[in-house]
Specification:
heterodimer; A: alpha/beta; TIM Barrel; Immunoglobulin-like; six-stranded antiparallel beta sheet; B: alpha/beta; D-Maltodextrin-Binding Protein, domain 2; 2 domains; five-stranded mixed beta sheet; 18 helices
Chain lengths: 405, 457
């Protein structure tokens, strides 16, 4: 079962059945809704799809997509624009629309909106309310803007944007997008958005405050004249930094390459001709890496994030409520701290660079005498020596460390 | 910026997005990290060094690096430092500066002392306390120099929070060389246009080309027609939008019908609907069409692609019959200069702002960029292109208007709430009258709901 959205605390999920949500944006086009294409999605390590153009083929195509998804162990958020047209007066039609497919085993929820302004929340809320009554347990999915969206787009400042979202829409999942990999500078510098970590931190805090998991989008392609084609290391880095901040689900933007129009796009994981690009294998590798442990993260609570050697822009102080790491030396790292349900401390340590290897030494609290390191195919337990842990991280890579007293 | 595959676009967002691309297109600096950072090593004398006894200061100046480039800012830096021996001006020019400023304001970190930014809903920043109240410097040294559109734009809730940065014209550009070769008079009314268009077509040339993929460019023609027909009183009513009936005004219908006639009469270059803004501009400079809805950035943006000898100019949007205000110009005032409330060097930033608003620096802006500041200043002795001169002529001889507004209802409802007016009319899914009537009905039907959603009493 895809989790990360257990708003109802009374719903118990067998831990062995938990799956860390790994999704995609821009599903195969109508003429590519085939068993082979959905098997290909599965092979990449993706386990849920956000519907995109299936509705153009009517209910038949939506159901076909759901069938292929089910056959491949994938879930689906269905996009059905008929819901967009519903008004307060016609909201009763929602039941007949969604009941056509909401009982399908692969059905996960409904795409409601992407990047709404906060002025739109009040209009969306009745739809979500009606939906929840009709499909208990389904997700009326909305995805939010990043911090760098304009005032016009958001309708206000970002904190208000989030506050109003929770007050009005009351989501099951806090999802947002933020694409950090900007076009390279004239000197070749491959930088990121100034507010990447600032956005992550605001979302992390809101997620904790509201006890609602957060998901986000991972950039896999270049677009417009502003964002570069990310390397495999950069994709890996964005995934790991997201996990370090406590993300409980990710989606790849995009899977299939979108047609360029007013916006222009480079190749995603599958190009316009339907061929796998290098990004397909890169994402497949990333997914294989994180699915070793990611389902565990679903039950952990984020304690905070430390950036070494210095804080990222716009964040004046970072803190982590943990005693486990008392010192850091060496190359730059980002450490996300967690605790499990028993209070045991965990950390995801991420290379601060997606271009260089990192060798970093952590000084551990003397109370820590054992670690579980997830730096190989299988987790390994190791005793702590001299209160030190030295980590070697490839560019963009991260490692999960579990601390035991 | 858009940064996500969307199923919905508003015209406003489209036009803002395209304008930001346009303004960045000709600078050659399209990467978000292609920034100008000039001034960290200004060689300024340290405290106590010869020629300076004042504490060394750094003034951080951020600006949108786009169609105006960075030359003016480098000049400002040079001249300001020359006049302030203890000051180093650090420039941060960035095509992506608008993406950065919101988070900087909200976090209070990494703020420049003064910023030159593109049009945005800055009134929200002001109401959040992010912007310094500039009323003192506005009243004492800047207001009297600003043009009418600039003076009006600076004020929010009776205070000045911004000083407009640039000005210009949105309207119609035309092939001046072609017009002169053929002895065509630039039409001042649509009646004159109706007489001219067949003559153009007889030459195998389309009267107009437009960017179908950025159909919001038609705002540059239709909005002037609305103001022509309805006058400034109607414009005020629209921008205030305090009741749904404001959309039920014949001025708006007249404008839409005039727009519709361009297509009914087949005066549009075939295939325009599939063109983006640069493609349509290429058709224009290659002589396939005589006129194109556009703005004062056109010449600079197309500099590299314009054939040798091609001559272009801006023309005033022809006046509709019976216009209340036949001589209006759609001002581009909207880009802003602000001082963040948490900026370190408040007083120095105000000095810089006043300096940048001086006659000398305003002239320098036009000289270096071919564009305009929203001030009243002399251009005598400045060599400008024929195109720039035409823009200046329009600005100086017509009443400026903008569609800048703080009305949340206008921002939500828009001019065409029933849908994409231009697209509907162009592709024949609605007539102008149908669009007009549906807009009126939509506004009436949704009024109370929108008021509630916006928290309006």
């Amino acid at each position: 079962m895809l989790t990360g959205c257990q708003k109802d605390a009374n719903v118990e999920v067998d831990p062995s059945e938990k799956t860390f949500p790994i999704g995609l944006w821009v599903s195969p086009p109508l003429d590519q809704i085939t068993m082979e294409r959905y098997a290909e999605i599965k092979e990449s390590g993706i386990n849920f799809i956000s519907g995109f153009t299936e509705h153009l083929g009517g209910e038949k195509a939506i159901k076909q997509a759901l069938d292929y998804a089910e056959a491949n162990g994938i879930k689906m958020l269905v996009r059905d624009p008929r819901l967009d047209a519903l008004t307060e007066e016609t909201m009763g039609e929602l039941a007949s629309i969604v009941s056509a497919y909401s009982d399908h085993p692969a059905y996960m929820g409904q795409m409601v909106d992407d990047e709404p302004s906060m002025n739109e929340y009040k209009a969306l809320a009745p739809l979500a309310e009606a939906y929840r009554k009709q499909v208990p347990g389904g997700i009326p999915f909305v995805n939010l803007f990043p911090t760098y969206a304009s005032l016009e787009q958001k309708g206000g400042d970002y904190r208000s944007y989030l506050d109003e979202y929770f007050d009005t829409y009351k989501p099951e999942v806090l999802s947002y997008d933020h694409y950090p990999f900007l076009k390279k500078a004239e000197d070749g510098t491959a930088g990121i958005t100034e507010d990447y970590f600032y956005n992550l931190e605001l979302i992390r805090q809101k997620s904790l405050e509201q006890s609602v998991p957060f998901w986000l989008f991972i950039q896999t392609l270049s677009f417009n004249n502003s964002h570069r084609d990310p390397s495999g290391e950069e994709i890996l880095w964005q995934v790991y930094t997201s996990l370090a901040y406590g993300a409980k689900g990710i989606q790849y933007f995009t899977y299939w390459t979108p047609q360029s129009g007013a916006e222009t796009f480079g190749p995603a994981m599958i190009d316009l001709d339907g061929n796998r690009t290098k990004h397909y294998d890169e994402v497949k590798s990333v997914n294989a890496d994180i699915t070793r442990f990611a389902s565990r993260l679903l039950d952990w609570t984020s304690l905070g994030v430390t950036h070494y050697p210095s804080n990222p822009p716009l964040i004046e102080a970072t803190s982590a409520d943990t005693q486990v790491v008392s010192g850091i030396a060496g190359d730059a790292v980002i450490i996300g701290y967690f605790k499990d349900e028993d209070g045991n401390k965990k950390a995801i340590v991420v290379n601060g660079s997606y271009e260089k290897e990192a060798v970093t030494k952590l000084t551990l609290d003397p109370s820590i005498d054992k670690l579980t390191l997830w730096d190989e195919a299988e987790p390994r337990e190791t005793a702590v020596e001299d209160n030190r842990l030295t980590l070697n991280l490839a560019p963009g890579a991260g490692v999960l460390v579990e601390f035991w007293e | 910026m858009k940064a996500k595959l969307l199923n919905r676009f508003s015209l406003l967002i489209t036009v803002i997005f395209v304008l930001s691309l346009v303004l960045s297109a000709c600078s050659g600096s399209n990467g978000a990290n292609n920034s100008t950072n000039a001034g960290n090593t200004g060689g300024k004398p340290a405290e106590g060094a010869e020629g300076s006894s004042e504490e060394p200061k750094v003034l951080k100046v951020a600006f949108f690096q786009g169609g105006y480039g960075d030359s003016w800012f480098k000049e400002l830096k040079k001249e300001f430092e020359a006049a302030h021996s203890n000051v180093t001006v650090e420039l941060e020019g960035d095509p992506g500066i608008m993406d950065k400023m919101g988070p900087r304001f909200e976090s209070g970190a990494n703020l420049p002392d003064i910023a030159f930014l593109t049009n945005t809903n800055w009134q929200q920043w002001a109401s959040q306390g992010y912007l310094t109240d500039l009323t003192d410097v506005f009243e004492s040294s800047i207001k009297s120099q600003l043009n009418e559109a600039g003076q009006k734009y600076a004020i929010y809730q009776d205070k000045a929070y911004v000083i407009p940065w640039s000005d210009g014209v949105l309207g119609m550009a035309y092939n001046k060389g072609m017009f002169e070769e053929n002895g065509w008079k630039v039409p001042e009314t649509w009646a004159e246009f109706n007489e001219l268009a067949p003559k153009i077509k007889a030459k195998g040339i389309a009267p107009i080309v437009y960017p179908g993929k950025v159909i919001g460019y038609w705002d540059f023609v239709v909005k002037p027609m609305i103001v022509q027909a309805g006058g400034f009183d109607y414009l005020d009513q629209l921008l205030t939008m305090d009741n749904p009936d404001v959309l039920n005004n014949p001025a708006k219908l007249t404008a839409l019908q005039s727009f519709e006639n361009l297509f009914k009469n087949d005066w549009i270059l075939k295939g325009s609907e599939g063109l983006n803004h640069t493609e349509s501009q290429m058709e224009f400079v290659n002589g396939k069409a005589a006129m194109i809805p556009n703005g004062n950035w056109l010449e600079a943006e197309m500099k590299a692609s314009t054939p040798e000898g091609f001559r272009m100019a801006m023309m005033k949007v022809p006046a509709i019959e019976g216009a209340k205000e036949p001589n209006v110009q759609f001002s581009m005032v909207g880009d802003i200069t602000v001082i963040p409330a948490k900026a370190k060097e408040q007083e120095l930033a105000k000095e810089f702002l006043t300096f940048a608003s001086s006659e000398a620096m305003n002239r320098k802006f036009t000289e270096l960029t071919g564009n305009f500041r929203p001030f009243k200043y002399s251009l005598e002795g400045i060599e400008v292109s024929e195109f720039t001169q035409s823009v200046m002529d329009i600005m100086q001889n017509n009443k400026p208007f903008t569609f800048n507004t703080t009305s949340p209802m206008f921002m939500k409802m828009g001019l065409y709430p029933a849908g994409d007016a231009y697209g509907n009319i162009v592709f024949g899914s609605k007539t102008a009258e149908q669009q007009f009537n549906e807009d009126v009905k939509f506004a009436a039907d949704k009024w109370d709901k929108y008021k509630e959603e916006l928290g309006l009493k």
